[in-house]
Amino acid sequence: MNIILLGAPGSGKGTQSEFLCDKKNFIQLSTGDLFRTNILNKTKLGLEAQKYMNQGLLVPDLITNEMVKEYLERKHDNLIFDGYPRTDDQAQQLDKMLLLLNSKIDLVIYIEIDESLLLERLTGRIVCSICKRSYHKVNRKPIRNGFCDFDNGTLITRPDDQEDKIKIRLEAYNTQTAPLIKFYENKLKIINANNLSSEEVYNKILGVLKI
Ligand code: ADP
């Protein structure tokens, strides 16, 4: 089964993917993480993507789709798509790529959340430099200040988690990604996450997945 997690930056897609991978053997395909790994390794793709990411802008579809295509040629089942697709073109290309591989998207879970909460989450977010798990400076502190509970990796603030960049990312989400809710209306399950902890959201996801 392949699932897309749809939602604004900060809606918890990464955290939920993490739970689903740890507990239910899904594999996370996070385009944001793939780009960041490329940046770290200073690949051509990484250097190109970095120009856009650091400004809070979406990486062009052509680059993003090509990276996903390469990934899907190796793995195309049991995936959680986290942060992809993000535009109409990406959604259409994804359908085509999966069809060629005899696979498909089974379900799209839209994590709905108020923008004020997103801002609070993103401005306080710190992430592990090794495993990418997220923490929050005030609301979800690690046990040892500055280090990941899981692997002791250093916690860092992502360069695009600065307020001016966050605004641009939310704008990109509203204009380019939110319309996908309509694109996927036949496969869509909505979870309102406003007053829920990440564990509660996860339980709702399990309910939707019936697993
Ligand atoms: P968030 O969901 O918090 O924005 P991500 O790690 O998913 O974090 O994405 C970080 C950045 O990576 C985005 O702002 C964008 O620049 C780039 N990116 C990730 N996924 C895509 C995508 N599918 N299409 C274009 N750009 C992407």
Question: Separation of termini?
Answer: 11 Å
CATH topology: Rossmann fold
- Spell out which ligands are present: adenosine-5'-diphosphate
Q: What's the total helix number?
A: 9
- Provide the helix percentage: 40-55%
CATH class category name: Alpha Beta
Broad structural category: alpha/beta
What is the correct CATH architecture?
Answer: 3-Layer(aba) Sandwich
**Oligomerization category of the chains in this entry:** single chain
Encode the helix/strand succession as letters: EHEHHHEHEHEEEHHEH
- Total number of strands: 8
Low-confidence stretches: none
What percentage of amino acids are in beta strands?
A: 15-25%
The whole-number mean of residue pLDDT values reads: 96
Binding site for ATP: 10-15, 125, 134-135, 195
Domain Adenylate kinase active site lid: 125-160
Pfam families: ADK (PF00406), ADK_lid (PF05191)
Family: Belongs to the adenylate kinase family.
Task: Describe the structure in your own words.
It catalyses: AMP + ATP = 2 ADP. It is found in: Cytoplasm. Pathway: Purine metabolism; AMP biosynthesis via salvage pathway; AMP from ADP: step 1/1. With 211 residues, the chain is an alpha/beta fold. It has a single domain (3-209), classed as Rossmann fold (3-Layer(aba) Sandwich), CATH 3.40.50. The protein is 47% helix and 15% strand. It is built from nine helices and eight strands. The chain has helices at residues 13-24, 31-40, 44-53, 61-74, 88-100, 115-123, 163-177, 180-183, 198-209, and strands spanning 3-6, 27-30, 79-82, 107-112, 125-128, 134-136, 155-156, 188-192. The strands form two sheets. A five-stranded parallel sheet has the order 2-3-1-4-8. Strands 6-5-7 form a three-stranded antiparallel sheet. Strand 5 and strand 6 form a beta hairpin. Helix 4 runs parallel beside helix 5. The radius of gyration is 16 Å and the shape is globular. The model has no long low-confidence stretch (mean pLDDT 96). Adenosine-5'-diphosphate (ADP) is lined by residues 9-10, 31-32, 35, 52-53, 56-59, 64, 83-84, 86, 90, 160, 169.
